Amino acid sequence: LDVAKRMIGTVDMSDKAEGWIKSESEGNNVAIHIVKQTDKTVEITVSARKYATPRVQFARNILANISKKLK
User: Could you give the percent of the chain with pLDDT greater than 90?
Assistant: First the structure.
């Protein structure tokens, strides 16, 4: 959540129970889904779109920053 707020700005929706973080900033729609697989593994999916066009590099940057924060 901290990484999303820092990179995207305002977080529109955060559902801790379901593992969703959603935001819209500067025309970018960003969705982050976090699912605990086991005690030691977590699956994180980040999708980013602008005007219905995928923003792959933007999503990768968010995921890389989340990974750095976890280390």
Answer: 17
CA 60 to mean position of chain CA atoms: 10
CA-CA distance, 7 to 13, in Å (whole number)? Answer: 15
Question: Do 45 and 59 contact (CB within 8 A), yes or no?
Answer: no
DSSP string, 1-38: -HHHHHHHS--SEEETTTTEEEEEETTEEEEEEEEE-S
Rounded CA-CA distance 55/30 in Å is 9
Q: What is the pTM of this model?
A: 0.79
pLDDT of 35:
92
